[in-house]
Write a structure and sequence with these properties.
Elements (H helix, E strand, L loop, with lengths): L3 H9 L13 H7 L2 H7 L20 E4 L5 E4 L3 E2 L7 E2 L8 E6 L6 E6 L5 E6 L9 E4 L4 E4 L8
Antiparallel strand pairs: 1-2, 1-9, 3-4, 4-8, 5-6, 6-7, 7-8
Length: 154
């Protein structure tokens, strides 16, 4: 189980080796992504709280990175938080997310990015439910939900 100490260790020292890498020139990212996805995934933006696709949607399925199709979180890790964005307790695997200290907007946070394509996903906080106590607060536009067993078309 991934814990806050693991998050801080990765953010401070070194992130895990990704399962694969996807590096594209920015014009190709702009072509592949919607303007909203591009602003969040490549521009490290944030979508409006409570007015996004997965904020109040709890349909079963797998959550994939909208940029590269890598699995980010599973249905079992999703929970009902009142943060305004979809929240998860654990990543799908230790090496699918990278962690970076973020002191933008006069706050100290830990940014989470897709470890495959380096797209901005959101932030992780140590105020989630037990047993791990993590809350991955993820932008809906950086995710794509697919049904269990469905193959994504990336």
């Amino acid at each position: 189980m991934f814990r806050w100490a693991d998050v801080l260790k990765y953010a401070k020292y070194s992130n895990p080796e990704p399962p694969r890498r996807l590096e594209l020139p920015e014009p190709e990212w702009a072509r592949r992504l919607t303007p909203e996805q591009y602003a969040v995934l490549r521009g490290r933006g944030t979508e409006p709280p409570y007015r996004n696709a997965y904020c109040r949607s709890y349909e079963p399925g797998r959550y994939l990175c909208a940029g590269c199709g890598s699995r980010r979180c599973g249905r079992a890790a999703r929970y009902r938080a009142i943060s305004g964005w979809p929240s998860f307790t654990q990543p799908a695997a230790r090496n699918v997310i990278s962690y970076h200290f973020d002191d933008s907007h006069h706050m100290q946070r830990v940014e989470v990015r897709c470890n495959v394509c380096q797209g901005h996903l959101g932030h992780v906080f140590p105020d989630g439910p037990e047993p791990a106590g993590l809350r991955y607060c993820i932008n809906s536009v950086s995710l794509r939900r697919v049904d269990e067993g469905e193959s994504p078309d990336f």
